[in-house]
Amino acid sequence: MEPETANTLVATAQSAKYYAAALALVCILGVSIGLGNIFSAYMNGAARNPSAEPKLKSMAIIGAGMTEALGILAVIVAILILFVV
């Protein structure tokens, strides 16, 4: 194999790694939209029925935590793609 071809293959593999990491981080867009929907619904529910606010708050916090866990997982996958693969 010629040296130029080997360098081209390495550059192609490196760029594919960066594209894969960027694609893994697209999930963050969904996480941000989901968090916005959770807290928007929480604010609407608390404004409509203030007596139900404590129950709504606990459900909103649990939902936000689960949604944020998905974002953290996406960041971890992107870091693994960049530095391990």
Verbal overview:
- The protein has 85 residues and is mainly α.
- The protein has one domain (20-83): F1F0 ATP synthase subunit C (F1FO ATP Synthase, Up-down Bundle).
- It is built from three helices and no strands.
- The chain has helices at 3-24, 27-48, 53-83.
- The chain starts with a helix and ends with a helix.
- The model has no long low-confidence stretch (mean pLDDT 90).
Provide a quick synopsis of the model:
This protein has a single domain (20-83), classed as F1FO ATP Synthase, CATH 1.20.20.10. The mean pLDDT is 90. The chain has helices spanning 3-24, 27-48, 53-83.
Q: Give the total of domains.
A: 1
The rough form would be described as rod-shaped
Q: What integer is the average pLDDT? A: 90
Beta fraction = under 5%
Strand runs, count: 0
Sequence of secondary-structure elements: HHH
End-to-end distance = 23 Å
CATH architecture: Up-down Bundle
Radius of gyration over all CA atoms, rounded? 21 Å
Query: Pairing-aware structural class of the strands and helices?
Result: mainly alpha
CATH class: Mainly Alpha
Give the helix level as a range of percent.
over 70%
List the helices and strands and how they pair.
Elements: H1 3-24, H2 27-48, H3 53-83
Helix pairs in contact: 1-3, 2-3
